[in-house]
Write the structure tokens for this entry.
Amino acid sequence: MEKCKKEIDILVRARYPLIFVTTYEEERLAGFISNLSKEQNKQLFLWSVTSGMHKHGENKIDEATKDPLSALNCVERQTGPVIFLFHDFHPYLSDPAIVRKLRDLVKNLKSTYETLIFVSPVLSVPVELEKDLAIVDMELPDREIISGLLDSIASAVSSRSAIKIDLPREIKEKLVDAALGLTYNEAENAFARAIVTDNALGIKDIERVLDEKKQIIRKSGILDYFHTEEKIGNVGGLNNLKAWLKKRALAFTQKAKDFGLPEPKGILLVGVQGCGKSLTAKAVSNLWQIPLLRFDVGRVFSGIVGSSEENMRKAIKTAESIAPVILWIDEIEKSLSGVQSSTFSDAGTSARVFGTFITWLQEKNKPVFVIATANNIQLLPPELLRKGRFDEIFFIDLPSTEERAEIFKIHLRKRNRKPENFDVGAMAGASFNFSGAEIEQAVISALFDAFTENRELTSGDIINSIKNSVPLALTMSETINGLRQWAETRTVPATINAMQDGKPAGGRKLEL
């Protein structure tokens, strides 16, 4: 809010005639504008379509100025230092008469001490006014404001013996993080709801506050809030990648900031299909205890000219508003494969959308950790792979014998079987070149065989299922070998110090 206050203050004193503030929190903005008008010895007039024009502090309704054109005529007649705050004026900015009147007003306002401020959650700027109108994005409540709100609510209810308050520093920090991205009123409602639910305020309420964020995501139409129970232990192998992720588990905490650590930007997971890229993205959310958003880039594109770029900006803004958050883009190469030919295929829309995205990747300053996965690096635009877009690019290869044994154990446990009752070593040896997904399907297929014959699952069932399957690695050996060759000098291996069927896995030595 401080940045927004400073910017509006400068624009008003610099005599910008028209200012457009985008926010849902018109009450917070009105409070600031009221203080600003007092500091600058100016009158403050408010307008809305329901009450017309009236002086701040007066509740009377002026029927004559409810019409937007009449309201602008009223602005023109005013003299002396005045700030006008117009609520939800954006629907009228498509009216040629209104636009023309505003252009006429600009000349008049520049020679007076009057400023016209529009406040709306929807940004709508006619081309005719682009050069005369300044745009300000009002930030949602920051960590300090949310923390103060939580303290005041906790203090207000702490005297009631029926309500238990358990807010040590770590839990309070997580609750504040969970509420970031909500408006002040939304955060207040979320905390109140959490208290009323179980007469307590503590660690259990983090998920309840996150429920408020789910509503924001659902309304966006572009992002999906992805609730996952997957744990990092359900990811077989990938020891180097998992170690990297575990080291950054506390990267978004205040303690890490105080220590001087920067927030990680993201990772690109490149590798063979079915080897755990998507599973890893889900597990990271659980490991770090921050929300996971799935970004379907295909939804960004629509038939309305100009809306694709706006949809991308909306998706980015939504993700930033609820940060810290993980933004998961699955099979990113499919979404961006048309960038190179965009000039000829869609008049440059894909290229502009991609440009917005990679610029944000490079320059973002909000704690949005991007996890992008890709199977076919040939389709990835080279700009995406440039240093600075991601913290690291990891290559996920087919699992080694050791990793396959671990994956078999994971899937047996998931299906209520004890791995020690099976010859996991034989199964791992028989599944040469199998991906993690193919191992899972082998176990499921064997379960069906045993169930049909009304008996318990055996190692032989799984080995027979393996023998009856042809792994993707055999049918796409040229593609996989090409991918390995590309990754050898350009990526970090997700697995190191493991044996890839008799040979050391990972051709790159790292210092950990």
About this structure: Residues 141 and 287 are 26 Å apart (CA to CA). Residues 436-452 form the longest helix (17 residues). The chain has four domains: 2-137, 143-215, 232-396, 401-474.
